[in-house]
Amino acid sequence: MSGVSFCVLLFLVGFTIVALLWWIRFPKAASIVMRGQHVIITGGSSGIGLALAQLVAAEGAAVISLIARDPEKLAAAQASVNAYSADVKDFASVKKAFEAACSESGNVTAVVLSHGVAVPGTFEDTSIETMEHMLDTNLKGNIHAIKAALPFIKSSKSAPASIAIFSSQAGQVGVYGLAAYSASKFALRGLAEVLQQELISRNIRLSLVYPPDTDTPGFAEEEKTKPELTKKISGSSKSMDAMEVARNALCGIKAGQFSVHCNFEGLMISTVGAGMSPQPSWPRAVLEVMTMGLFRIIAFFVVKGWYTTILLSQQEKAKK
């Protein structure tokens, strides 16, 4: 076979793969419009949630409603938004807040669930009460908020609508010292995949955002009690600015992406762990097919590095 014939064959194979992935991907790409719409953000009194509120305002959203637990922080953010105090762990509280927000500002087009809590510590050293606090906030809190939001987002006249859930890179790969946190964040993927199947006929898109460590007040608190091994492992990926994370997240949400990463490490982890998750973007579908094997090889080296660090640290500790 001549060089020209081989190049033509290679082109045809590549073209066929791209065409197949463009045709077979589902759901198809969508565009979520923020301008002129009512957007609700939980956990929006600080950090990523507050940064998202600022970006959505710049997009021209008609109304932004923030739902968060701390009334004082909400009061500080209330100049440009509607604010409602609620604890996501309490369904009645969340339901009341969504009802009030939608009663005052109309049905919602986009719900962004950016609340969350992390209390680092090894499984043995973390109390059941602390674990339940994380599970109740990160998992049940999302279930409560989505349950409260559904009647109003299903009645929205704007299509497509969006529900965006904030997981974490620790919701894609387990990290030493984050057992309950990772468990609560991993569970969100199952929730999002099922909801996307159940809500696709209503043209409601689910987005699952995977931020890395982010410079927020909550992260500063985490650092105070985080085990040294957790810092070493999570430190392999640099923390990001809250506004940068919010900007990347909003870009993915507006494009109707299911898996939304915020940096290169997030892209690699999302690709390796794509599994049976939906992929609306044909360029991302092509990337997943072409690079999954390579990224998996890289992952082997990363994981080996983590375990080596853990074992060496434990050996040194045993000698003392």
From TrEMBL:
Which EC numbers characterise this protein's activity in its record?
1.1.1.102
Per UniProt, the enzyme's principal EC class comes to oxidoreductase
Lineage: superkingdom: Eukaryota
- Coiled-coil stretches are none
Q: In which pathway does it act?
A: Lipid metabolism; sphingolipid metabolism; Sphingolipid metabolism
Where does the UniProt annotation locate this protein? Endoplasmic reticulum
Known Pfam families for this protein? adh_short
Q: Which UniProt keywords apply?
A: Endoplasmic reticulum, Lipid metabolism, Membrane, NADP, Nucleotide-binding, Oxidoreductase, Sphingolipid metabolism, Transmembrane, Transmembrane helix
- PROSITE patterns for this protein: ADH_SHORT
Q: Can you tell me where the transmembrane regions are?
A: 6-24
What name does the UniProt record give this protein? Answer: 3-dehydrosphinganine reductase
This chain's source organism reads Sphagnum troendelagicum
